Amino acid sequence: MTTIFLGLVLGFVVWFLSRYLIGGLYTVDQNERAVKTIFGRADRVPDATTLDDPISQSLNDDEKLRYKYPQVRVIPPGGPYFKWPWEKVYKVSIATQTLNMAFDPDSPSANSDGQILEAVTKDQLNTGLSGQIRYRVSERNLYAYLFGVKRPISHVMGYFVSVLRERIANFEAPKAKSADPEASIVSGISINDLRKNLRDINEHMDRECASSAARYGMVLDASLITGIDPPPEVESALAAINTAHNQVSSDISLAQATADQKIEQSKRAVEIETLKAQAEVEPLRQMTTQLADLKKAGDGALEAYQRNVRLSLYTRAEQVILEAK
């Protein structure tokens, strides 16, 4: 009987050591971060919240009241670490991931199986948007990702889509400085405005989604809208307008280039004639200066110069006509 009891005790000890001591060891990979809970409560940093972190600077006063999360102790990569039976470890990958911006986590078949996101423009055209977003879990707000929001990716995608649709519906292109009436007509078409200002729209989305880390514990690294496609019934008309505008712009550019070329040729001709006139006038100016210097040299200098010039002309002349007295 004693032997059986000792065997039971020894078996319990072996089971306890293997189950809770050896089984309590764990490691954290390089692209992971971990948070430990004790009796279901996250191990927190005392008296510290996300409002003390710069990630909350993009929140307004009302949002700061709603998205105030405690800061937790983050377990860095490495190990082995140890946890007691009443403790639980949550591991999270912080690697950057890419996702189609039309993907709906709650309904994967929505938005044409997550390929095209529909949005309405300011002139009531239903257009299709395509592109990608890059996101990652925020190491500085793991509490919101693990415990504050049930499905963070659903909240982030919903927030992104709502901001994007609001931007598309109210987007107006910057006022063009050109007085070209054709340019004003084309810029008044919302789809053309959106296509020409994709960079501005992407930058706007990056600014508006900067608060996602404080809201949901996920960082939107970048959004890249790559395509804006109008409805099929509008595409042909839009292509015809763009073709006509391009033709007009080409003709205007060609006429402007021809006019600029003629103006430049006229400037060159005037410059050449001016140089010729200067070349003809310059010897006379030099002679005037020389005669003035001879006159200042003294009596008889100018007469001697004239006599020498006259003799030189006589030697080169074939005939000389003298006036008879």
Oligomer: single chain
Query: What's the order of the H and E elements?
Result: HEEEEHEEEEHEEHHHHHHEHH
Overall pLDDT confidence: 80
Count the DSSP helices.
11
Question: What class do helices, strands and sheet pairing give?
Answer: alpha+beta
Outline: elongated
Report the biggest beta sheet as strand number plus sense, adding barrel if it closes.
Answer: 4 strands, antiparallel
Percentage of residues assigned to helices:
40-55%
DSSP summary, beta strand count: 11
Q: Which residues form runs of ≥5 with pLDDT under 50? A: 181-188
Quote the beta fraction.
15-25%
Please state the CA-atom Rg, rounded to the nearest Å: 43 Å
What is the CA–CA distance across the termini? 174 Å
Notable features of this structure?
about 325 residues, alpha+beta, 11 strands, elongated
Short précis:
This protein has 325 residues and is α+β, with helices and mostly antiparallel strands. Helices cover 52% and strands 20% of the residues.
Question: Would you mind describing this structure in some detail?
Answer:
By secondary structure, the chain is of the alpha+beta class. 52% of the residues lie in helices and 20% in strands. The chain has 11 helices and 11 strands. The strands form 4 sheets. Strands 8, 9, 10 and 11 form a 4-stranded antiparallel β-sheet that branches. Helix 5 packs across helix 8 (198-208). Mean pLDDT is 80; it is low at 181-188.
